[in-house]
Every structure is written in structure tokens, then in C-alpha cells.
Amino acid sequence: MAGEEFDLLFVADARFSGGTSTALAAEIEAAWRAGFSAGLLHVHGPVLQRAYAFHPAVRAAVDAGKVRLVDPRSPMAARLTIVHHPMLFPKPLGRRIDLKTEHAVLVAHHPPVDGAGVVEYDVRRQLDSLGETFGFEAQVAPVGPNVRARFDPAANVRFTPSDWHNLIDAAAWRAPFRPFGKPLVIGRHSRPDPLKWPDRREDILAAWPDDAAWRVRVLGGGAYLDGLIGPLPSNWEVLPFGAVEPKAFLRTLQAYVYFHSDRWVEAFGYCVLEALASGLPTVLPESFRPLFGEAALYGSPAQTRDLLQGLAQSEQAQRRQRERGLQFTRERFSLEQFPRRLKTLYGLTPRRRLWPGRRASASRTEQTVLFVSSNGVGLGHITRQMAIARRLAPWIKPVFFTLSRGAGLVRDAGYLVEHTPFHRYLKSTPERWNPVFAKELAEAIRFYAPAALVFDGNVPYAGLVDAMKTAPAMRRIWIRRGMWRDHQGAILSRAARFDAVIEPADLAGEHDEGPTRALRSNVLAVDPILMIRPEERLARGRARKDLGIKRGRLAISLQLGSGTNFDFSAMREKLIGRLLERPEVDIFELRSPLAETTDPEPLSPRHRILRLYPAFRYSLAFDAAVCAAGYNSFHENVVGAIPTLFVANQAEEMDRQDLRALYAEQHGLGWALLDESELEAKAAMLLDAKVRARVRRRAGELTTGDGARQAALFIEETLIAAR
């Protein structure tokens, strides 16, 4: 057969945050352990309307080589195709998938009709769409009896003879026994959804009592709880969804209690399975009995207190209930059940082991991403884009189309780049410039035929929007940092022109007062984006040698930006003069590659002027720094643990650099210089070795993920998705 061949092909929207992706990841792990080869066809389904990255467990399986991402444009073959989620295909994909498969199953993680009788999906329509897309007729596999019972018996559908239960790594979830204590610690975890809770306040407080003899812990809280119960009881501790890992959260409990709305049909209850696998005595409504049997205790919310108090009388009874849950989980839901299921239903045993080790995505067809960046006062926009580009998979070709005068730096880094000037440098007006820009960009889009366009800038220009319309199939992503000023908010409506908005985290984000703050729930948040990770910097000895810094000298870098929109000259001279009063100080002024004037004359033999890019690579050479609080330089110096005096560019067109500088000072991560009157005191702190050491220790405690890699993976996941 042509193309890639697998024992199993999983078809799923890998972005789901709840039980569907958890179940998918468990099956991938079970298949890997049993020796099955597996591919994953990622589908951008209609359920999720905003930007989401892959579920972390699915992403980890891909990165570990346990499943291989497949290219929807390439032929493929599988012995069994497993489609996860029954609402993924309300209509066929935009193109037919070249797939040959012996068997196919649609896993119904969701009932077709909810508790109020409202139709959630038409399973026949889903099956017909699968047939048009893949050419097969799939069986339907309900995940549990609550789902199976909701299907119309007269429907023209083939069902699997047994339910397709979700699976769990039982051994990994088992927690040490915790006998009941005083207070008795009970809890629950779920997505933050009112339907995951009882409808009446009195039922909620019956199941999770407002009583000092009980301690209630909730993972998955939110403002919606105010509408359900009002002010939280004093004995409740509520954590937001995702604040801690469920496995760690469950280990803080002595018992688990779960009830939901009458309008909600719990298809399976993966959160319940996690509690049982942890060994927690669990109280559930009667609707769960057909699935979990004697593994749990059953009753109404009003009966919860008596059920748990009965167990509290005997540690032996607690251990007995715990063992029932653990044994039932092993026998019914452990990963070892998966190969048995495949053999029973389809006669499948492993034929080929998946290739060992870590593997990248499987796309063999090169795709282009067009990075478009605004002009910018500095190099922040284009630097973030290069940070992402260097982390892209080998099959993705980055091309740059930029307004930045730093285009030469992109070319020097080995990328194909085109430059067109911003209207300000052409002495033109936006009204005259935008139509011309739109034509030039549209021509580049036609020539390079990018699969995606990634824009980094504060303003998606009218010309950009018009050019994007010429390629409706092209994915459109806006990278938009926060800390805006209020008057800039009007342009945020242009986010509707993009398929996704990525917002790199800002360490000072808690101080963000701007208009993007209210929109965080609609963007893909990633960790801070840095071109060079701290661990990639040159070692101190090598960096000091390369820069000619002599042993015993106190080296301070000075980096105040390009100066194109804010005059730092007076502050600069005073700072240099004050710092050079110390005879052991050498100042290395790092001039922006965008600086339009020739370098000024040094103010002293101990004052050197350099042009370095990216300067962060050499930052370990310096004992301290003075720099502007732009996004890139702020995060580089803080994450890099460089004791820094931050000087804010307070031009109206800039982001809130002053808030970043103040955040650093308030948290012991540096100092803020917002007024010349503070110069003497702040310079003294910078020159104090003990104070610098405290800042280094405090900054060294920070840990951040690689936002550039996260953004690159999201782009990869977007390009590899079938739609």
C-alpha cells in the first residue's frame, strides 16, 4: 500500500481539554505499551471555536514518538480507525482523505440527547459525513451505559456489542491510603461548568457541607459558583481549573463526592474514574451504578453526609471500600484492557512496532508560513517571529515579509525576507499607503502560497486585512502581546479577521490595565517568548573573553533602545556619569541595530559602544544592566537573572513599560527608574554587590516555559489539521 501504514489510526480533535483527550491519550499509551503502531489524524472540529493547543497529554505522546501525526493530504492505511467524539463530523471534511482501513469505530463520548431532551447531534449525519470523508461505515461505540441508553433503538446504526470504556493507568494513579480525619477532607474536580453541579443550592451544600467538621476542596472553580451558591462557605477551598494536576489534587483528599445537574447526562465520568483509581471512597448519584458497580457508594446529595459518616466509624470499612474501587478499576478500566478489547472486537494483535525514540511530525510536504511584522520602534516584533521560526518543524518553511528596518538581521539569520517601508518612512499617509501595501503583500501571498500567515504587531493594518482576503484558505494568526494603553482598544475588533490570537505571557501581567486583559479567555496564552533561552547563552568566561572584559572589572550593560520615539539622552548621560564614578566599572553601551545616527563618542575610556544582536546571548558577561523595559529586553533580563535598572519608554504609542519596571522593583527582580530624581538612589542599589546578589537569587527562582516553542507547536498543529 502507498503511504503510511498503521495498526491503529486515531482520528480526533486533539485540542479538547477534558475527558475526551484524556481518554485518547490513555489509548495511545495503551497501544504503545502493547506494541501497536499508531497514527493520529488531527481534525479541527466545530466544537471548539477559539484557539487551543493540543491537550498536554496528547502532545507529550506525539513528542515521545508513541503516536505519529499524519498529513491529511497523504495516503494512509490502518487496520482499525478509531474516531474520537461523535460531534466531530457534522459535515464532511473539505477534502477526501485517502485512507484504506479494515475496521472503523466512532467512539461516542457524548450522549445524542441531553437530560432535558435536547438533541445534541444526529449520529446518522455524523456517520454519513465520515463515509464521504473516508469511505467507510463505522460502528458506534458508546463509552458507557448512560450514552448507549440515549440512542434511538430504531436508528440505522451498528453498535459495538460492548461499551468502549475510557481507560486509565491504574498503577500510576494509585495514591497512599489516607484514613478519615477531623475535619474530614472531601472534594471534587471538573471543568468549570454549572451543569457539572447540582441545580439547587441546598443540594450543593448537602453534598459538600458548610460545616467546620468538613473541609471541602474544589478544583475547577470560577465565578459561575457565585451564581450557584453565592458567597463560598468558609470551609471551602476553591482552585481554578488547571491550577494543579488532578493526580496531585486527589492526593489531598480523604473522600470524593460528585453530583451534577439534572440537565446533564454524564457520558462516562473520567473525573470519577481518576478518583477511584486514586483509591478514594467515592459518593455518586445512582445513575453511575451501571458503570461503576460496587466500586462506589450511591445516594442523593442529602444522603452524602450519612454515607461518609458511616465509613468514618471504621478504618477497616474505609480500606475495604478503597480496595473495591482499586480492584474494579484494574479489572475494568486499566490500560491492559485495551489490547484485549481490540482482540475481542476485531481480532487485532500488534503487527509492527512504532519506530523508537522521539520523532517529529510526519508531514512530508513542505508548507510555507509567511511571517508579517509591523515596523515597531525597536526589534520586538521581528525578534519574536524569529524566535518562533527557529523552533518550527523542518517541514515548515518560514518566509518573512516585514516593515521592520531590521530586515537585514533576518537575512543574516538565514531566512528569506522581503522588506517594504512603513508609511512613516515614506512620508506618506496611512490612506495612501495601505492600498499599496495590500497589493505588495497580496502579491507575496500569491507567490509563496503560504499555508499560514503569522502577524506580529499592535495594529493589523487595513492593507494587511485586505491582502489576507485574497487567500481564504490560508490560516491567519495574530501574535499580540498585552500591556496596551486604553486608547488603543478600538483596533481589537480586528481579531475577528484571524483564526487565532496568540498572547505571550508578561511577567508583569497582573498589573496589566489595558483593553486586552478582558479578552484573555479568547486567546491562546503561551509562556514568555524569547529568541535565546537562558540556557543557550554563552558561558560567562567565554562571553567576557569575546567582549574583551578584563578580570575583576564590574561590567554594566546599557541598552536604552533605538531612541526613535523617546529621548533618553539626558538620562543616559547622567547614568553613565554616575556609574563611572566607581573606578572598577566598565560600561558597555549596546546600541540598537535600528539606531539611525552614527554611534556617539564614548564619554570615557571605560565606556564602550557596541552593536550586538541578539545581545542576550552575551548577557552572562555583565554583572548588572540598565535597559528599557520593552517586552523582549525586560523578560530577557529578568528570566536571565541579570540585576537590572529598568528605564521606561513612556511614549504614548508604546506599551506600559512603566508597569513592567514597577513590577520588577516590587518583586525584588530589579529596579524602576521612572524619574531622574530617583537616579542617585537607584544607581547606588545597582552598584551594591549584596543587593545585586539578592536580585539574582530572586530572579533565579523564576521558571518559565518556552513560549516560542509553544507558539511554533501551535502553528504546526494548525497546519497539520484536517478541516
Describe this structure in words.
- The protein is of the alpha/beta class and 723 residues long.
- It has four domains: 4-167 and 337-346, Rossmann fold; 171-333, 3-Layer(aba) Sandwich (Rossmann fold); 367-530 and 710-716, 3-Layer(aba) Sandwich (Rossmann fold), CATH 3.40.50.2000; 535-700, Glycogen Phosphorylase B (Rossmann fold, 3-Layer(aba) Sandwich), CATH 3.40.50.2000.
- Strands 15-14-13-16-17-18-19 form a seven-stranded parallel sheet, sandwiched between helices. Strands 3-2-1-4-5-6 form a six-stranded parallel sheet.
- Helix 6 links the parallel strand 7 (184-189) and strand 8.
- Helix 14 (380-389) packs across helix 25 (707-720) and helix 20 crosses helix 23 (679-687).
- The longest helix has 19 residues, at 315-333.
- It is globular, with a radius of gyration of 29 Å.
